[in-house]
């Protein structure tokens, strides 16, 4: 599955939202379902799906879909989130 689709599904499942709501501008605390509990579920889902282990600073900094892409690319530079 392409990285973009994997990311969208992880966000949709963790935040219990529709996949079409997962856009780069989706931001922590600005969406009612993205609270601290959902954030940890999201982190665990992304770690499992992308086979990475985030550093604490990256978990804290993961404040939007766009930022999540940047952080994941740091761990796996070959990832492409195009389309």
Automatic annotation (TrEMBL):
InterPro entries: ACP-like_sf
Protein's recorded name: Acyl carrier protein
Organism of derivation: Thalassotalea marina
Organism ancestry: Bacteria, Pseudomonadati, Pseudomonadota, Gammaproteobacteria, Alteromonadales
């Amino acid at each position: 599955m392409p990285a973009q689709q994997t990311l969208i599904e992880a966000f949709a499942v963790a935040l219990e939202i529709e996949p079409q709501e997962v856009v780069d501008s989706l931001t922590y605390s600005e969406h009612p379902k993205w609270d601290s509990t959902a954030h940890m579920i999201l982190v665990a889902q992304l770690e499992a799906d992308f086979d990475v282990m985030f550093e604490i600073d990256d978990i804290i900094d993961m404040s939007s879909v766009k930022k999540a892409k940047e952080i994941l690319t740091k761990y796996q530079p070959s990832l492409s989130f195009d389309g």
